[in-house]
Task: structure prediction
Amino acid sequence: MKETIKEKVKELLAQGKIKGFVGLRRRGEDIGPHVFTDPEDLEELSLGDRDRPGDARYPLVGLLGALSERFPAETFGLLVRGCDERALRVRMADNRVTPLSPDRIIPVGFSCPPELAQACQCLKPWPDALAAGEPTPGVTRVEEAVSGDLLEEMDKWSDILNRCVKCFGCRDICPVCSCRECTVEQEAMVPQRELPPAPSFLMTRAVHMVGRCVYCGLCEQACPADIPLKSLYRLVARTLGQDPAATGAITVPRYTPAVDRTGG
Amino acid sequence: MEYKATLTTCPYCGCGCSLYLETVDGRLIGTLPAKTGPVNQGRLCVKGWNAHAFVQHPKRLTKPLMRKNGGLTEVSWDEALDFIVQRLKEIKETSGPDALAFLTSAKITNEENYLLQKFARAGVGTNNIDHCARL
Result:
């Protein structure tokens, strides 16, 4: 799969179709984000699998957003899993001064292996812009890390949420978080200097994730308190009347970009 | 257009979390935890997440400041260091070594911390040495 993607990106760079390819690079034991402009560097391309599939994933859509804002006239390639593509669609539908434009982005996607789909409890572990691999079937019914109704299980949830130390890791790493003025930084919504900071920080964020969260799980990986954030966001979404599992592929309804499967 | 994710260690505490400092054309734009870092394994505290913020901050001090005529004035390093040496000597001679105290930092290297305590104990002759972690 990696070889197919390497060849695809080499082609895009050689044809001058992209200024750079937003992906991951492996150097020794470390895997981190990188924007490939030199085809030679593609020898170090990584899909984000070090010891286990997907254990070195990063919010590449967030990085693309930062680059696109600074170089709005340039076209970038983007390495995408299923969740990355969903996040990209959410960001493209945002009403911004410098919007992410579909004709300035070429997604090059691959499918996640079944064990990763299971670990993430992912409903759609493959992107439409699939350049390598066959679509892996997603889970049919999500098994929550913490099940139960929020209101009924308040005690259990309370213990979990009280572990939050408000490191903002979940917000900082989220690929769909892009507001210039973030609600959870507003004193009126989330009072400062409250210990423990739960539940106002977590609940306010969860409400903002309704309709935006693509369940990529990067927040859970970034949480030093091991709070089951995906379960929380799904619970809050359902409580507010939106069933994120219904569509199987969370997209913002008002925008469906025509993403070319071949990335051309 | 050059994006770089530079793998480094967080400057704040002694844990030594691995993080990537993200730069675009030499300007810092953000921080990402290193997923493969053995200490933090993809997590950071709030200070680590903002490790990029102070480096190129406009309010960061770039020159020594000395209090003159009730206000802070920019001076050269030579003037600042000459003044420190002169005053430390004066105070040590008139009030004794224990009238001086030294405070080290978690944001400097172990070697620099060692140097300062050696200066305090062997150089100046006082045991009044402490560290910002104890504040």
In short: The mean pLDDT of chain A is 87. Chain A has nine helices and six strands. The radius of gyration of chain A is 19 Å.
